[in-house]
Design goal:
The structure is a single chain. The protein is globular, with a radius of gyration of 22 Å. Helix 6 runs parallel beside helix 17. The chain starts with a strand and ends with a strand. By secondary structure, the chain is α+β, with helices and mostly antiparallel strands. It has a single domain (4-429), classed as Cytochrome P450 (Cytochrome p450), CATH 1.10.630. The protein has helices spanning 49-53, 56-65, 82-89, 127-136, 139-144, 146-163, 168-173, 175-185, 193-204, 211-216, 220-230, 241-250, 256-287, 289-297, 302-312, 344-347, 382-399, and strands spanning 4-6, 14-22, 27-35, 40-42, 69-71, 76-79, 95-96, 165-167, 318-323, 327-329, 332-334, 339-343, 400-405, 410-413, 418-422, 424-429. The chain has 17 helices and 16 strands. The strands form 5 sheets. It has a 7-stranded mixed β-sheet with strand order 1-4-5-6-12-9-7. Strands 8-16-13 form a 3-stranded antiparallel β-sheet.
């Protein structure tokens, strides 16, 4: 566990350097901020290969060091306690998203792509497009999709169980959400895997410009061109969710350009998280066979099991907020304009919130987990994602007696999301 340095109590004074925009000179300048309260400091990098492979030791160090911790390598605050992560997510006025939900501060540098109208915007600008998608993804609309999602899940699982072995990522977690969401949105068949690659780039770029950024960004121009072409109205099927978004442009609720960006957000945010969520769930059951026995004997636990998997191994491990004014987090004073990384994965394993949080237990209450965020920026597609997870687990529970890992799972490292590139499984049919 990383060593924690504690900045002493007053009257000893310490200073932090922030970069702020100088609008007159068109550049940034350094400002020294005086800090007179005590706070813990960690000289640790959450984006290192080691910490991305196994984020939980660092999350524990952050959580146990204090309510909020200063991360030296990036000059940012970090919190991994559930209480404070949830409170910040629910306080969009003091902790904004419009400055970027990654390490980059949009007020100081140009975004690498047009910001999301939902994820990277705050009320009131955020409200208008969100109302459109909230209506399109209403509970009734999602329930009406249940039959088609369950049919696809049953057919896919039947095929995989018949094989007796399969890769839980390549043949299940990537195939199912990619196709059911693309079908729902109205994306035509052909090269749909580009959506996965594009989404991975998006989540990678919420972190620093590190080796992951260098690996994924060369493919961005081609993928971006493909995705935006397939988000055009005349390419989408006339009966999908994408067409409904463009219909909102016809009524003047949003512009045509905004409709295109909303379709993009739908795909980039909705596929990658579902892929990781389902893959992580499969690995959890393979490692906790007693929990699979519970689900196998009672398939009605499928929804609860998926919720526990999201808590246990959160598909999105961290997001950022930026302070809009001086703020207090657990007694630590944060200045205006400072980045705060919220460890969703750490909050979801906080022992202050859950008993034995590092144990996968599908019968626990997961109420309050932040895998889908919280507040005005909570994931709009969470009902659809829950239906995907429930459909897949129900289909598996009816057909699979047990799982067995037949090879070492291969992590798929990303700056903010957590998932696997491969999980080889052998299954025994019921």
């Amino acid at each position: 566990m990383p060593a924690v340095e504690t900045i002493p109590d007053p009257p000893v004074r310490h200073y932090m350097t922030n970069r702020i925009p100088d609008t007159k000179q068109g550049k940034t300048m350094a400002m020294m901020t005086e800090v007179t309260e005590s706070y813990p400091v960690l000289d640790a990098d959450p984006f290192s290969r080691e910490n991305l492979t196994d984020p939980y030791p660092l999350q524990e160090a952050i959580r146990e060091a204090g309510p909020v911790v200063w991360l030296k390598p990036y000059g940012i605050w970090a919190t991994a306690r559930h209480e404070h992560v949830q409170a910040i997510l629910n306080d969009h006025e003091r902790f904004c998203s419009s400055a970027g939900v990654g390490l980059s501060d949009f007020r100081k540098e140009k975004p690498w792509r047009p910001p999301s109208l939902l994820l990277e915007a705050d009320p009131p600008a955020h409200d208008r497009p969100r109302r459109v998608l909230t209506r399109i993804l209403s509970p009734i609309a999602v329930r009406n999709m249940r039959q088609s999602l369950e049919r696809y899940a049953n057919d896919l699982v039947e095929k995989l169980v018949h094989q007796r072995s399969f890769d839980a990522v390549k043949e299940l977690a990537e195939v199912y959400p990619l196709n059911v969401l693309a079908d729902a949105v109205g994306i035509p068949q052909g090269e749909r895997e580009n959506i996965l690659r594009y989404a991975a780039i998006g989540f990678a770029t919420f972190g620093p410009r590190n080796w992951i950024w260098d690996e994924v960004m060369p493919g961005f121009p081609k993928l971006h061109a493909w995705l935006m072409t397939n988000c055009e109205r005349d390419v989408l099927t006339p009966d999908g969710l994408g067409a409904q978004i463009y219909a909102a442009a016809d009524t003047g609720e949003i512009t045509v350009d905004e409709a295109r960006l909303l379709v993009r957000t739908f795909l980039s945010a909705g596929v990658d998280t579902a892929v990781n969520g389902i893959g992580n769930t499969m690995l959890a059951f393979a490692r906790f066979p007693d929990q699979w026995e519970l689900l196998r004997d009672d398939p009605s636990l499928a929804r609860a099991a998926f919720e526990e998997a999201l808590r246990y191994e959160s598909p999105i491990q961290m997001f950022f907020r930026t302070t809009t004014e001086a703020a207090d987090v657990g007694g630590v004073k944060l200045d205006e304009g400072q980045k705060v990384v919220l460890s969703l994965g750490g909050a979801n394993r906080d022992p202050r919130k859950w008993n034995e949080p590092s144990r996968f237990n599908i019968k626990r209450s997961t109420a309050g987990h932040v895998a889908f965020g919280s507040g005005v920026h909570a994931c709009l597609g969470q009902m659809f994602a829950r239906l995907e997870g429930e459909a897949i687990l129900t289909a598996l529970a009816k057909r699979v007696h047990r799982f067995e890992l037949v090879g070492e799972p291969k992590p798929s490292l990303n700056n903010t999301s957590r998932g696997y590139a491969s999980i080889p499984l052998k299954v025994q049919a019921r």
